[in-house]
Specification:
With 173 residues, this protein is mostly beta strands. The protein has a domain at 33-137: Beta Barrel (OB fold (Dihydrolipoamide Acetyltransferase, E2P)), CATH 2.40.50. It has one helix and six strands. The chain has one helix at residues 4-20, and strands at residues 42-52, 63-67, 86-90, 92-93, 107-115, 126-134. The protein has a six-stranded mixed sheet, with no helix packed on it. The radius of gyration is 22 Å and the shape is elongated. The relative contact order is 0.19. The structure holds copper (II) ion. Copper (II) ion (CU) is lined by residues 67, 83, 86, 88, 172.
Length: 173
């Protein structure tokens, strides 16, 4: 039989289930990220081409840079393994870094900091862009592959990048 009490209980139950599906307090939004350690483990300055600017979306887009090779890149074990030239996303940008004057296809110089160490429950690695400026006239990034965004390449047929292709000499991380 269906008494009003039973119906009320059913409604309450579904409400409770609904609440349990709500975001947990542990989920962090961008502004609530844990504080960074006082000192980064490493800092690199590289030239490159701006492939994408951050956009809230959808689809969400992170800052993306086609950067030069970084021969002195040190991995989380402290070993200098180098990083190949690649297109790489940098979701975290330090306060004070302005992207206003930049557009996709610009030749840029960027400084990013790497934080390998972390507390439990925090993201394992953090890459923070601490400086990003447009290159002056006559200065260019040393890139072997053509940019996907540079206007000069638009008239050439482009090969879509295959996953795992062209980077057999080891990965960055
Ligand atoms: Cu990289």
């Amino acid at each position: 039989m269906r008494s009003p009490v039973r119906l009320l209980l059913a409604v309450l139950m579904s409400l409770m289930l609904g609440i349990s599906l709500a975001p947990m307090p542990g989920c962090l939004t961008k502004s609530e990220k844990p504080k960074l350690p006082a000192k980064p483990d490493a800092r690199y300055t590289v030239k490159g081409i701006l492939e994408a600017l951050p956009a809230a979306g959808p689809p969400k887009q992170e800052l993306s840079v086609h950067h030069e090779a970084i021969p002195d890149f040190v991995n989380s074990q402290g070993k200098a393994v180098g990083m190949s030239e690649m297109i790489m996303e940098f979701p975290e940008i330090a306060k004070g870094v302005s992207l206003k004057e930049l557009k996709v296809g610009d030749e840029i110089e960027m400084t990013f900091e790497v934080y390998w160490k972390h507390k439990e429950g925090e993201p394992p690695v953090r890459w923070v862009v601490s400086k990003l400026t447009k290159l002056g006239a006559g200065v260019h990034p040393n890139l072997s592959k053509p940019s996907e965004t540079a206007p000069a390449d638009k008239d050439k047929p482009t090969q879509p990048a295959k996953p795992g292709d062209g980077s057999k000499k080891g990965t960055g991380t």
